[in-house]
Inverse folding.
């Protein structure tokens, strides 16, 4: 069962518009993050009406009644009573055993939850088909990150299958590993397409959601680019393994006469001027200082060692990227806190300015 977020309304505030109204600060605590939403009473009434329409039945809790003779902006007691009533309303819906109201789009949109947060479908994070990529791009920032994690898992599985293929001794095992690696790469390609189209939708804000910051958009574009390069590299590695296997098979099935023709000069020339054929080294590629003194088995072991070192470097890079992500999230939380503090400071300045204006008018009357 999917863990439900913890919902509370710890405080209220008053808008700074020409006609002030009460804002209810909703706090949602998810397993990986905590964020705050600001809603007014009319948003709750709209949610309640939409839930009845989409679920086909009224929710198990009722909204606190609307007051026609007093305002929450002028009555702190009424604002506190309504805050408690709205908090009870959300918590009742969130913990009720019947989840049909939580499974509606109105509930998820109201709380800015991922579109699949309450789904128990086994293919929740399955890669989108080509038709789904065109019709349902990933437009939720949290689901986008979930799909990117699944993409990295697909690429990692493809790399493991290619490593197993390199270590396999039978042709059947090599073929099975190649097929599995190709399957993971095809899934990765479809997920990259879905992530790219979803990021474009987020950038254009065509789905009514809040736009991501420019820095976050650049970071996600870099993630897509890195995943695309990694997929292409794995695909090229798989093709190189297939070509090498075909070449080794051709050499292994070559007859002794074919080998003699490769190592000897043309018999149609003058036999008196022919020099004895000498064995030559590998001619499949340019030799380096590290491979010149190795036989074929040694070159294969060197290649495997280099691949292991590259995997270790990738793991170190992943740790560094995760650390940078954590730092970025902490910076974001600090910026939100600083923004709230600046808002409070702005309110204090306005209040002090109002008092100064009143004092100035009184001084003017005295003078």
């Amino acid at each position: 069962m999917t863990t439900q977020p913890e919902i509370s309304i710890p405080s209220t505030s008053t808008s700074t518009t020409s006609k002030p109204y009460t804002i209810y600060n909703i706090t949602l605590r998810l397993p990986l993050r905590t964020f705050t939403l600001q809603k007014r009473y009319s948003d709750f009434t709209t949610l309640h009406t939409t839930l009845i329409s989409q679920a086909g039945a009224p929710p198990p809790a009722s909204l606190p009644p609307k007051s026609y003779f007093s305002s929450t902006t002028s009555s702190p007691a009424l604002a506190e009573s309504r805050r408690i009533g709205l908090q009870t309303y959300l918590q009742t819906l969130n913990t009720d055993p019947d989840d049909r109201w939580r499974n509606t789009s109105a509930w998820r949109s109201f709380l800015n939850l991922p579109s699949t947060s309450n789904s128990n479908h086994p293919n929740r994070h399955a890669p989108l088909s080509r038709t789904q990529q065109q019709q349902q791009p990933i437009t939720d920032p949290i689901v986008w990150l979930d799909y990117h994690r699944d993409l990295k898992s697909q690429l990692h599985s493809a790399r493991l299958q290619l490593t197993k293929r390199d270590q396999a001794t039978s042709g059947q095992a090599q073929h099975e590993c190649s097929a599995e690696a190709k399957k993971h790469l095809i899934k990765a390609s479809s997920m990259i397409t879905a992530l790219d189209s979803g990021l474009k939708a987020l950038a254009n804000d065509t789905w009514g959601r809040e736009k991501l910051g420019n820095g976050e958009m650049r970071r996600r574009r870099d993630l897509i680019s890195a995943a695309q390069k990694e997929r292409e590299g794995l695909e090229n590695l798989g093709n190189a393994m297939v070509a090498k296997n075909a070449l080794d098979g051709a050499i292994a099935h070559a007859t002794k006469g074919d080998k003699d023709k490769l190592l000897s000069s043309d018999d149609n020339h003058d036999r008196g001027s022919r020099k004895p054929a000498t064995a030559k080294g590998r001619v499949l590629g340019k030799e380096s200082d590290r491979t010149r003194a190795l036989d074929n088995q040694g070159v294969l072991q060197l290649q495997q060692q280099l691949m292991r070192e590259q995997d270790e470097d990738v793991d170190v890079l992943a740790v560094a990227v995760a650390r940078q992500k954590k730092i970025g999230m902490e910076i974001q939380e600090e910026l939100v806190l600083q923004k709230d503090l600046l808002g409070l400071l702005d309110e204090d300045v306005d209040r002090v300015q109002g008092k100064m204006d009143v004092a100035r008018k009184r001084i003017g009357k005295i003078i």
